[in-house]
Amino acid sequence: MDYLVAVLLPQLLHGFVFGAALGLLALGLTVIFGLLGVMNFAHGELYMLGAYAGIVVIGVTQSFWVALVVAPILVGVLGALTEATMLRPLYRREPLYGLILTFGLALVLREGARQVWGGDMRRIPAPFTGSTPLLGMTYPDYRIFLLAISCALLLAIWLFFTRTRAGVLVRAAVQDAEMLDGLGVDVRRLFTLTFAGSAALAALAGLLLAPVFTVYPQMGVEMILLAFIVVILGGMGSLGGSVVAAFVIGIAQSLFSLWMNPQRVAIAIFGIMIVVLIVRPRGFFGREGVLE
What we know:
The structure is a single chain. This protein has 292 residues and is mainly alpha-helical. It has one domain. Helices cover 75% and strands 3% of the residues. The protein has helices at 2-36, 43-61, 64-87, 95-117, 141-163, 165-182, 187-209, 219-234, 239-259, 262-279; strands spanning 131-134, 137-140. The chain starts with a helix and ends in a 13-residue tail after the last helix.
């Protein structure tokens, strides 16, 4: 019982917290793939830039809460410019062009961050401290906040795509962008705003997780690998599948880290992906025809 309360339960909660934040990152990746047909390798760097933008805004305003609003907006604007100037000319070309471009962009952004902020690890202090009694133990208040806001955002995104006109338009564009364009919808603007929103989500995840982890130029590399695993496990283009897979991977990684070293944890995560894809080649909720 002591092991359950002191060790296993906190790790399980850590997994839920990490899974919820990972879901925010993976959802943006899923939406961009479903809408634009681009596997955005630079998504992890947008996550990284969110944390660094937060550091800059906090340095100016001395407020984590202001940074939580301003940093995603700044990265979202960068995402909009990226889509309009770099990705838009490639939409009618083979997907390989988009892969190469975003891979190169990831390298540029990573090296740019190193040149501007240096390669040292940085920390963003949590906006509040303290712990709350929970299930027979005490759990950090910031992690509880992180779980709550991440889940609230995931719910808000689901409501956006299922209950609003803008969300319906995005889903319609995923199915048939040319038909939507023929009906008079400005599809180019829709693509740009969606990519900007995806970038802002990645930045928000980066800033929310910054008080838990460290901030450094390569922080997006590990996260983008996990995000790709989540997207593949959930089913390419499936929003609900990405959320479910994010919690599965978050909890699995947290629990495996109790019994394995980091290298073996990574192998175990890939092992989960392989087993799921053997049983369900399209992932949890993959659609027929995607990548086929």
